[in-house]
Amino acid sequence: MSGPRPVRAPRGTELSALGWQQEAALRMLQNNLDPEVAEHPDKLVVYGGTGKAARDWRSFDAMVRTLRTLKQDETMLVQSGRPVGVMQTHEWAPRVLIANSNLVGDWANWEEFRRLEALGLTMYGQMTAGSWIYIGTQGILQGTYETFAAVAAKKFGGTLAGTITLTAGLGGMGGAQPLAVTMNDGVAICIDVDPRAIERRIEHKYLDVRADSLEHALQLAVEARDARRPLSIGLLGNAADLLPRMLAEGAPIDIVTDQTSAHDPLAYLPSGVDFDDMAAYAAKDPAGFTTRARESMATHVEAMVGFMDAGAEVFDYGNSIRGEAQLAGYDRAFAFPGFVPAYIRPLFCEGKGPFRWAALSGEASDIHKTDKAILDLFPENESLARWIKMAGERVHFQGLPARICWLGYGERDRAGERFNDMVASGELQAPLAIGRDHLDCGSVASPYRETEAMLDGSDAIADWPLLNAMVNVASGASWVSLHHGGGVGMGRSIHAGQVSVADGTKLAGEKVRRVLTNDPGMGVVRHVDAGYESADAVAAERGVRVPMREG
Ligand code: NAD
After folding, report:
1. Which entry of 42, 295, 399, 444 is 20 to 30 Å from 352 by CA?
2. What is the pTM of this model?
3. Quick one: how many helices (H) and strands (E) in the chain?
4. What are the φ/ψ torsions at residue 436 (nearest 5 degrees)?
5. Which residues, including other chains, have CB under 8 Å from residue 113's CB and lie 6 or more apart?
6. The CATH number of the domain covering residues in 138-331
């Protein structure tokens, strides 16, 4: 049994475990390894480089076997993708507790991690890979949509209609940018050096058209902008050449960002190098390539700063291009902010974050019914309504049908309770697994990303994700996870996750209400503690108790 094989979660209402809480964990583990969902299922790798769902096939088999026989008052313990114990607990306790990739501070680097991994002692769990709540590329699309919606809310009256966004990188994640901009009714010019990246995005309907030249791209963009018509335009070329040219020519750009793979200098094409020669050059002379890539990134970032000086909204989208430009000696590289402090933090202050759920029935109709329930519950939230409607039309499900949307404190619990009622009444064909990304308001410490530039300087304080995991255990989540190194790598982040199963029982309803109140509540209290006034206002309005505010 213990070797690579295709894995797919069962559908329907027949249980192979002793209850829906255990069945949900089993199906979501299997779903993470579904070939439609995982990047390299044969290696148990789900996404994000080497983010895995189980340490090895023997461990996977042992988890499946154990989940099938796990009782309602038992808890399976998972240590970096391997089941290491079953303990008697109680029915409010999680059925699974997961700790992935954690290392003691002084040992928390890739070198030591790789050494231990080679000994078979650990695995890299990323964020939702090792915690069994990854739902495919919908997550990236929605996160990018939400970021551009926040840009629109902050600077452009709530819509990108009538604006032009300039960006580069149409790869695995960056390819979500054109659709995220047009979903916000804006116009996007997206540069990439790889013609296949442009073609692929057009094929997948994430990108609308390809321009023949810079002039053509600008003409198409201006026409669409003036008609307030959404349009995304692919433009072939090197961002380090095209951005300075566009700046010099006074191109009418409102928003600038970038998602080339700048975090890895060997994956950024230096100016003056042909795309077809890139791989051979990087392999032959990595040091020389790196120097030239960094110099080009400095030119690229200098143009971004130029657009900022000219009045455009400019931000770093989490690819370290500012850091690389600084290494090349450009001293204004950090003149523009990262996307979390610029747009996402105000949402975090309201306890907002990437709420998601999967239909264990396997029926798309269950998700369409929950989409409708979300629209009914939050009719005043226009950006949410636009996302839900467009996701219904444009997102292809991968594996078990699922949905993601950002909801805040006081919203997630209402959605969760409604979902549980829909399971209870038989409106949905089977229970739902309700979880979230670890990239959330109160569940992550990551000084280069989610906790960059906290108001009180508490960027590296990692007590918060630990408290978050403990609160979710104490509140009745179905499985809870505590990881290290997701997103930005070893030594750079600590983060927690939870999944709660709405199985239609009264008990599940009570658990879901507590978890989905307390989990985003951690985001509110974390930001109150850091001194954010908007979090303070949310706590006061919505009744989140913070002892240091009382008395
Ligand atoms: P990818 O490697 O799949 O794609 C990168 C693209 O950039 C490729 O299509 C490549 O051809 C293009 N490119 C390289 N050099 C270029 C140049 N000089 N000019 C124009 N195009 C160039 O990477 P990805 O998965 O799309 O991720 C992109 C980056 O964004 C990564 O650095 C990633 O870490 C970061 N990222 C951050 C977040 C976040 O923080 N929320 C989310 C997604 C991605």
Report:
1. 399
2. 0.88
3. 19, 17
4. -165, 170
5. 101, 103, 122, 124, 485, 490
6. 3.40.50.10730
CB 448 within 8 A of CB 492: yes
Q: Domain 1-135+340-551 class? A: alpha beta
Known active-site residue 405:
yes
| pLDDT tens for each residue of 38-89 | 989 999 999 887 899 999 999 999 999 999 999 999 999 999 999 999 999 9
Report in angstroms the alpha-carbon separations of 281 from 115, 268, 274, 297.
Answer: 30, 12, 10, 17
**Burial letters for 266-282: b for 16+ Cβ neighbours within 10 Å, e otherwise?**
eebbbbebeeeebeebb
Is the distance from the beta carbon of residue 61 to the nearest atom of ligand 1 less than 6 Å?
A: no
Q: How many angstroms separate the CA atoms of 370 and 366, rounded? A: 6
**How far is 72 from 166, CA to CA, in rounded Å?**
53
Verify whether ligand 1 is closer than 6 Å to residue 147 (CB atom).
Answer: no
Model ipTM value: 0.97
Distance CA 127, CA 489 (A): 11
Contact indicator for 474, 388 with CB cutoff of 8 Å: no
Locate the ligand 1 atom nearest the alpha carbon of residue 242 and give its number.
19
Tell me, in angstroms, the distance from the centre of ligand 1 to residue 69's CA.
44
Q: What ranges do the domains of the chain cover?
A: 1-135+340-551, 138-331
